[in-house]
Structure formats: structure tokens, C-alpha cells
Amino acid sequence: MLDIRRLYMLKTVAARGSITAAAQSLALSAGAVSQQLAALRHDVGIDLLRPDGRTVALTEAGRVLLEHADRILAAMEEAECAVAAVKGTVGATATLAALPSTVARIVAPALTALGADHPQLAVTCLVTDEAQLRELALGTVDVVLGQRYHHLPETAPRGVAISPLLDDPLLVVTAADGSGERPVALRELATHNLVVPPPSTDCGQAILHACHQAGFTPTTRHVTADIAAQLALARAGLATALVPRSAIDPGTLGIRTAPIEDHPILRLLFAATRHTETTNPTTEAVIAALRTAARQNRTGHLPPP
User: Fold this and answer.
1) How does the average pLDDT of the chain come out, rounded?
2) Residue 245, exposed/middle/buried by CB under 10 A (0-12, 13-18, 19+)?
3) How many CB atoms lie within 10 A of CB 203?
4) What CA–CA distance (Å, rounded) separates 94 from 124?
């Protein structure tokens, strides 16, 4: 009979691209992972991995086995969810992966509420920009607070359930000048020096897409994905920033914010979990807290001009 732990190791190696990377994510030695994969190869009687430059790749037999392993692992999680639903209680642990720009106004309030409502639940929060949905598929996180910009197609990886939380517009941020807040036409920024995220990021692509729709190519003086740096440059009067509304701390001083009136740039914040037929009370509690925090954020106040 195949060992479920070895099947999971095969899945992890395939996703990470190497035994060393898989071992690091599993908190094991590379030798231990190699030993278990060798045992799995012995169980099935055929090579499952092959060298591919500095990485490894699945053989045809490995791909076939991984397809079945995915179904087996999903069935196991379905069984765990069904038992948890019968118990009807929130569990003891959960892991949330979230974007840095969501921590102050959504994640922190959600975790505070969870601590009050479910004191037995310890939530580990991983703040990262990278490959969140892949970690969800691998089972290293339970809930992802992610984003998708509206100019991109709506897609979700197989086996992932998406719950929309908030339409989060990008605001034009400049140094406070004493004037009142008024909507800004995006084409007005054609004469501004902008600070924007790298064009390789979703936000950077969304800004470029919107500016091109407005009929101009932006003048990019500064490039950084660090929102604190973007706000600092805007506060100093060195650049104009385009920052998601929920990423701006209401206590931020020295800046002026304005909505875009003609070519709005929106990101959809969503909560993602692995798809199961039965609702898991623990992940449902985390998503409910995120949804409440997102709703409160929608009606929250921005920094005064």
C-alpha cells in the first residue's frame, strides 16, 4: 500500500522543483526526503523523477502518480472537514498567508476579532507577496488573503475556492497642500513624476494598463513595491503615488488622497481556501473575520487632506 506521506513529498518536490527546496519547506533534511522518495520508487517499481538541469522533473509515471496523489490528498482533507463539521467547533490552529498591503487595515483587525471570538484558535500569519495560491495547494497555508486586478481575467487554480472580500480602488497620493480632496482624471498624471511598483508586478501592470487606456505613458521617476516608500516619496513632494485605499493607514499625516474619476484602477481582495464539499469551521471562522474587517475598511476614514 502506498504511503500517503511519500505521496505528499512527491507533490512537494514537483511544486518546489528540487529535493533541497522541498526538504526546506518540509523542515526535513534532503537526505530524508531522498530516502522516502527512493522507497516510493521501490513501491511502484518505476522511476518517478528525472534530472532536469539543476532541478528535477516528473517522469511520465511520476505525472500519473501525482494526478492520483492529488485526488487522494483531497479526499483526506474532505474527510477531515466532514469530521470537523460534525464536531461543529473551531479548531486550535490555522495558517493565513496575506499581502503586506493588507496587514494594517484588514489582517490585524481580523486577527484581533478572532482572538476575542475564538481564544482557542492560534492563527499563524505569513506576510508574503510570493506564490500564495501555490502554498495553499501544497497545504502549507489554510487561507490566503490575495488580490486580483480587474484588468486581468478571472481565474482560479483547480481545487481552490475564492471568496470575494473587497473592491479596493487605487488612490492618487500627493503631498498635503491644504486644498480639499477632489477626484482626479488619470490623464492629469501625464505631467507628474510617478512612483510605481515594478512592471513585473500585478499592480505595476494595472497602472501601466490604465495609463495607456487614458492615452499616455507614465513618467516613472521611482520604482518600488514598498508602499511605505511610495508614501514617503509622495509626502516629500518628490513623486505622485497610486496606492490601494486599504493600504493607507488612516493615521498617515502629510499626504493628500484623491480618487481616480475616469479610469479607475481596482484590485479585488479575496480569501481563498482549498475547495471541499464540506465547510471547515476553522477556515470559515478566519474568512468571516476577514470579511468583517474588509467591510469595516470599506467605510473607514482616510487621512485628512
Assistant:
1) 89
2) buried
3) 23
4) 6
